[in-house]
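Quick start: read one record
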Amino acid sequence: MTGLAEAADHSPRSQAGDGASSAHGDHCFGCGPANRAGVAMVSALVDGRLTGTCTFDEKHQGAPGLAHGGVVAAVLDEASGTVPTHSGIPAVTAKLTVNYVKPAPLHRRMAVSAHIDRREGDRKLHIYARIELDGELIAESDALFIVVSPEHFRAHGAKEGELPFLGV
């Protein structure tokens, strides 16, 4: 499972059964329900497009009342990475460029979206993501993800059965 054409039937979305994506890891900062410092983004992938939500709180604060820019970037990275992951394509971030448009306030539900903008060869995925509040752009990103083999995750500590949707 190293090529884009080999998107598996083992996606977290298909395991969730209701169209909502399950976390790809309980302790993931972006989507893991067991990570108390995380943002617990909830998302679904439909026709290759991710839509989801997240809410920042005091543990994500930068300036008073606002989310830290690094946390905003982390959500954009999470959304971008969820697109190939939930399609059964093992891929990792190679580059993330963020454009901050407006401050992200705490305690407001933000809309998050992402999609593959274009593919370059078998290994490069260019992914666009955005965060909005009440229809207004808060931040957006362009990311480059590289398709890797499942062995990449094993080599860095993933245990067999821990990421079945990526062949691990």
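The CA atoms of residues 53 and 111 lie 5 Å apart.
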